[in-house]
Amino acid sequence: MARWPLPRPRRGPGPAMTGRAHSLVRSGTDGALDVLHPVITLVRGLGRLVVLAVRWWSRTPKERRGPVLFLLGVGVLVVALMPWGPAFAVVLVVGAAAWQGREGSGVGADPSEEESKRLQAVYEALVPLFALQDDPNPQPLFAHDGSWERAFEEIEFTDDGRIGRLLLRYPAHFRDSDAKLRFLVERLLGAKSGRDREYRFVWDEERNELEMTVPEPLPEGIRAQRFVTGPGEVVLGFTDADSVHRRVPVTDAGQARDVPPVVWRTGARATESHLLVVGAPGAGSTTLLRSVVLQALEHGDVLVVDGSGSGEYACLAGRAGVLAVETSLTGAVACAEWAVHETERRLSVASRARQAGNLVPDDARRPLWIVLDRPAALSHLARTEGRRDPQELLQVPLRHGRAANVTVVVAEHFECADELNRAVRSYCRARVVLGTASPEEAWSVLGVDAVSPPGPLTPPGRGFARLGAGPVLRLQVPATPDPLDDAANEGERRAVLRLLPPLASGRTTGGTSVRTREPDMPVPPEPSPQQGSHPTVPTASVPEKSVTGTAAASAAAAPVAVSEQQAGAQAT
Ligand SMILES: Nc1ncnc2c1ncn2[C@@H]1O[C@H](COP(=O)(O)OP(=O)(O)OP(=O)(O)O)[C@@H](O)[C@H]1O
Fold first, then answer.
1. Are 468 and 429 in contact (CB under 8 A)?
2. Tens digits of residue pLDDT in 179-204
3. Is the domain defined by 266-510+520-567 classed in CATH 3.40.50.300?
4. Where exactly are the structural domains of the chain?
5. Mutate to test the pocket of ligand 1, among 287, 304, 480, 489 (most ligand atoms within 8 A of CB)
6. If you measure from the C-alpha of residue 481 to the centroid of ligand 1, how many angstroms do you get, rounded to a whole number?
7. 280 is in an annotated binding site
8. Does the structure's ipTM exceed the value 0.85?
9. Is residue 572 annotated as involved in ligand binding?
10. Angle 179-193/439-446 helices, nearest 10 degrees?
11. Which residues face 462 on adjacent strands?
C-alpha cells in the first residue's frame, strides 16, 4: 500500500524577496538537500519502519504479545552474542531503512498521475456537500476550482491503485452531527472508491477530520460448530481482528484457525441480558437465532416462537432441551404465559433459598431461553382477534429475566420494527443489525448516529453488533442453515445436524403446529479430530432430568400450556 502523507500548502514568495535572492536561496537549499539526501532517505525509512512496527503491534492480539516479546528478546540476545552480530544487525536495519525510505515507494510515495486523477474525482464529488455558497474564505477547503491537495491529508493506495485509506479535513460549517449528512458523505466516498468493498468511517468531530479505511474482509463461510466459550457466553459471529482482543479457535474448510468473535455474555452477571436482532428480509436473522439456539442448548432449555410460521425451526422440535416450538398465536400466548409463571417461580424459589441460606436449586438456575422470531405478526393478530399480545406478556421475563436466568432473544424485520413494544426495545441491550440499513434504521437499533453502509453486495449474515453502550462491531454470522432446507449447502446442513441435541425420549414438545419429522438424511459422521479437540458437551450432559424437572416444577406453579390443543381448549 502506497501512502502519501500531509501535503503542505503551497505558498508564493514573500513580497520583499527579490528574484536574485530567491534563486540564491533555492540553489543553496538544493545543494544542502543533495548532500543530506542519504540521511533524509534513512531517516524517512526509519520513520516508516517504526510506523509499520507500531501498526503490526497494535494488530497483534494481546495474548500473543508476551510470547512475541519473549522471542524478540531471545533474538536480540542471540544477535548480541554472535561474533559480528551487532554490526550485521545495524547493516540490516540501515538496508531496510534505505529501501523503505527511497522515493516513489513504501508508505510515503507521491501519487502517480492516475492516482491524482482518482483523488481529484473524489474531491470534486465531495464539493457540493462540503462547499458553502458565497464562502467568505478566499481559499476554502472545498471549492469547484479547488484541488484535492487542499483537503486530503493522508492517502494510501492499494497495490491495484485504488484508494485504501483516506484522511480528509472538512470545513467547520459542515454539520457532522447530522446522521443524514454523514451518510451522504460516506455513501459518496464509498461509491467513488469502489462499490465492491466495505469501508469504515471515523469522524473526528474535534478536528473536523474524516478517515475512511477499507477493513480486512470478515471471516465468511464459517459453519456452525461448538465454539470454545465460557458458560453463558454466545458467539454471535465474527468481527475485525483489531476490534476485539479475543480469539476463538474454529474449523474452517477443514483447517483449524483462530478468529475474532463477537461474544455476548448472558446470565445473572451480564448487563446485556437480552438480544434484539433487526434485519432486512433475507439478511439472516433466522440464521442468527438458530445459531444462538444451538449454543444455548448446550447448557439450557429453549422455547421457540416462530411468528413467521415458516417452519424454519422445525429441526428443533422434540429435541432434548427444546421445550416447545410454536408458530401459532395460541401457542405463542401459551408459551409467553408459561414463561411469565416460570420466571416468577424461579424468582420466588431463589428468594426462599437465599433467605434460608441455601444454594439456589438447579431447576431455578438452569438457563432458560425464550426465542421469538418475527413477533410483530403475532402482535398484529392478537390485536385483531382481541387476544393477549405475547410481547406484552414477555415484559416479565424481560424485566426480571436476569435474576431468574431467563434470556429473551427477539428478531424482527426493519419494516415491522415499529411493532416491537417498549419493553423489548429497552431491555434488549445487546443489539444486532443485519443487511443494508439506512442511517435512521441503524440509529433506531444501535443507538448511534452513523454506521457505514455495508453496501449492496452484502452477503447474508453480515451486519453490525453493539453490546450495551459498547462500540459498534462489524459482524458476520456463522452459516447455520435450516438442516431441513434442501436448497442449503450440504456441508452446512450436516454441521447443524451434528449440533442438534438427541431426540428427547418420552417427551412431547407441545407445539403441534411444527413439522416434527426427522430429517430424512443419513446421520452425519462424527466430527473430525480437529473438531473433536474443541470441548463439546456430551449428549449425556443435556439433562433429560432437568428438562422434565423444570417442566414438573413449573407444572406445580403454573400449567405448562405449550400444547396448541390444550391452549386452544383453555382459550375457549
Ligand atoms: N451467515 C450466513 N452464511 C451463509 N448463508 C446465510 C447466512 N445467513 C443467512 N444465510 C442464507 O441466507 C438466506 C436467508 O437467511 P434467513 O432465512 O436466516 O434470513 P431471514 O432474515 O430470517 O429471512 P426471512 O425472515 O426474510 O425469511 C438463507 O438461504 C440462509 O441460508
1. yes
2. 788 888 988 998 898 877 888 888 99
3. yes
4. 2-8+35-108, 113-213, 266-510+520-567
5. 287
6. 7
7. yes
8. yes
9. no
10. 120
11. 476
